[in-house]
Amino acid sequence: FDRKVDMSNVEKGKGYFINYKKMDENIKIVRDRLKRPLTMSEKIVYGHLDDPHNEDIRRGQSYLKLRPDRVACQDATAQMALLQFMSAGLPTVSVPTTVHCDHLIEAQVGGVKDLARAKDINKEVYDFLATCTAKYGIGFWKPGSGIIHQILLENYAFPGGMMIGTDSHTPNAGGLNMIAIGIGGADAVDVMADIPWELKCPKVVGVELTGKLSGWTAPKDIILKVAGELTVKGGTGSIIEYKGPGVEGLSATGMGTICNMGAEIGATTSVFPYNDRMGDYLRATNRGEIADLAKGFQKNLLPDAGAEYDNHIQIDLSSLEPHINGPFTPDLATPLSKFAEAVKKNDWPQELKVGLIGSCTNSSYEDMSRSASIAEEAAAHGLKVKSKFTITPGSEQIRATIARDGQMDILSDAGGVVLANACGPCIGQWDRTDVKKGEKNSIITSYNRNFTGRNDANPATHAFVASPDIVTAMVFAGDLTFNPMTDSLKGADGKEFKFSDPTGKELPPRGYDPGEETFQAPPEDRSQVQVKIDPNSDRLEFLPAWEPYQPGYEKDLYVLVKAEGKCTTDHISAGGPWLKYRGHISNISRNTYSGVISAFTHEANQSYNHNTGKFESTPEVALQYKGQGKRWVFIGGDNVGEGSSREHAALQPRHLGGFAAIAKSFARIHESNLKKQGLVAATFKNPEDYDKIQKDDIVTLEGLDKFAPGSELNLAVKHADGSTDNLPLVHSYNEPQLKFFKAGSALNLMAAAASA
Ligand code: F3S
Hints:
Blueprint: H1 20-34, H2 40-46, E1 63-66, E2 70-74, H3 75-87, E3 97-100, H4 111-121, H5 123-136, E4 139-141, H6 148-155, E5 162-165, E6 179-182, H7 185-192, E7 197-200, E8 203-210, H8 219-230, E9 238-243, H9 252-260, E10 269-271, H10 276-284, H11 288-296, E11 311-316, E12 323-325, E13 333-335, H12 336-346, E14 352-358, H13 365-380, E15 388-392, H14 396-405, H15 407-413, E16 417-418, E17 441-445, E18 461-465, H16 468-477, E19 489-490, E20 496-497, E21 519-520, E22 557-562, H17 569-572, H18 585-588, E23 607-609, E24 614-616, H19 618-627, E25 632-636, H20 648-655, E26 658-663, H21 668-676, E27 680-684, E28 698-702, E29 713-718, E30 724-730, H22 735-743, H23 746-755
Parallel strand pairs: 2-3, 2-5, 3-4, 5-6, 8-9, 8-11, 9-10, 14-15, 14-17, 15-16, 17-18, 22-25, 25-26, 26-27
Antiparallel strand pairs: 1-7, 4-21, 12-13, 19-20, 22-28, 23-24, 27-30, 28-29, 29-30
Helix pairs in contact: 3-5, 3-7, 8-9, 10-11, 13-15, 13-16, 20-21, 22-23
């Protein structure tokens, strides 16, 4: 297995080879140290350790420093990630990286027109991504190419590899035995810039599959069942590792579906052991060489006998029923046989308005041909869909292949609308017109997420998640209580019929049709490439370099806001309509802390303005202070910055002149993002000191002259009535993080190193 095999056909000749030799060495070192059998996911994770000899390896406790093989970004998150990478001053990314245009395409009337409109509306973003990727050696998948995870599975995922992606469903690549983890843009920038990436050593949940799927039960039902068992939090901090004889009966794309939706139980990632079904998929996608290499390395891509798991569940596939999960949460799992009863009991709207199949979760050839088999049978009885029906191919390759092989015509003839190869309604990019906002209604999708408002921004929409088979059968009934396994439908001739079990080919017998060319490889000579950002753009802006720390900056700081209660990254940097400005730091900063509840007024978006003596909008006050060169601090309660890894929650306060964030405690990723942006992140040594902060206090952060790992800081507080307080603070900075602070940011430090 130490032959030179390219990680991807798309990058042949670039010198990006699969490095099983290094993995093998790492695994031997770790096995020697731990003296115990390893699970399969442990082998892959530890196979990517930066320092296998010395790193502290304790599942669920220590932090690992890792060297992922690749990075992938989707277009919404790539904008700020690339802007940050640019400010590091490096000439090229240090690991193979790709950017995928999939999130910004709105579904309105159908694929072709919707794509054309999106290219027009998002032109400046696409131009920026196309030129920036070309400049820095990044592969660029143009709008229309497909959804990030489908393209990764088709072209880049490989057994035993490790990938990070700026999208939560990156684990989809676990269907090809890759450890693939969704992360924030700041982490992606680190990896692109050759900095080891930190991950809490994952716990491992073993899911033993026995038996074999049959009839109406599909791979999706395995994860729907697992989500019901483990709940939305059950996978937190863990890798879900599938195993057992039942694995052999699943297609690689089916395994991808299961790993994809593992994100819904909060899992770090999900992964299947390497097997021949994966080999078949690799061969079908022209990667037979990788399949052969992986076969020779297979012992490292399976668990050791006797490996121990932190938690263990077992599922018998032979007795597994189809499930329907929802509404409003993906872990409310109901077996199909109980679903009609649940609809009535819970007063869920019985009429099915829309069924949506496809997306990154469920648009494989197998999924599409099984759905087509159902539609074909309905057509034979003269039926068209009763509900609206949409089909989202996951990639141009899938679209072209099902167009050639006839499934697309069958689905369209039944009344389905084929949408662009993009996220569309899965991420709320859906110009839905069949119901009014606020109108109670039901939809069913083969997607993965169904939180309130996710698909159509209508909080009254009851969104259910199921396999594409169940969705397709349901749209012919137009009724949520229909059970295709037991109930009949009336054909056009008035005769009743029951659907047969769906059937479909795992892989296209004539091979995949690649369709239109939608990939832009970075040019060999990149010296002349200019990154395009229109200076008048309201969506993109070059990221300024933050100024380095100067002694004195810590003196006489205003308290901008003191947060009461929960303060997630959404409170700090709101989503929704603001996502449009993700690439424009000045514009998006106008939402900073606007969701935070003030501890003084108990309302959102209220800051005491020292200039006027009144409470005013927080970002407006911060902007005024910035204009006056006046620095400020944020004060927070427990677990500040929980929720997501959104780096904007640290970038925006920094942009508006924030100097420090002081809280009772921080969510770890947010704390690390604050440090990377050169802010001081510290916690009250005595949490009750939080209560001593008043709206018009002026504070000085003492102890920065002796800022060192483990040192104590002091918050010297001057109250408006002339009284003072000294509040001891603690911090968790290590040596490299202290350098970020002094340099102004982690990227400043990199830029200085790059130009030295
Ligand atoms: Fe896109 Fe939905 Fe997948 S947003 S990446 S299709 S989860």
